[in-house]
């Protein structure tokens, strides 16, 4: 028996909350509190898109932040 898929807005809220676990290593705070998480969208099929604003365009931690966001997002059921 499979788990029913959550409505996209519920998944988006859970993703936003879960992404508080992603901490900007330079600033020491989570990306949600810092306002770096610009948007989170989930489709009815469960595909997720998250937009993160970096502190500078050439942020040396870009890859680490992207990997952290992907890891946390994948762990959220839905």
Q: Can you describe this structure in just a few lines?
A:
The chain is an alpha+beta fold and 78 residues long.
Total helices: the number is 2
Topology order in helix (H) and strand (E) letters = HEEH
Largest sheet: 2 strands, antiparallel
Could you say which structural class the secondary elements and strand pairing correspond to?
A: alpha+beta
Mean pLDDT level: 87
Shape: elongated
- List segments where confidence is low: pLDDT < 50 over at least 5 consecutive residues: none
Strand order across the largest sheet: 1-2
Residues in helix, %: 25-40%
Rg over C-alpha atoms, rounded to the nearest angstrom: 13 Å
Q: How much beta, percentage-wise?
A: 5-15%
What is the count of β-strands? 2
Oligomer category = single chain
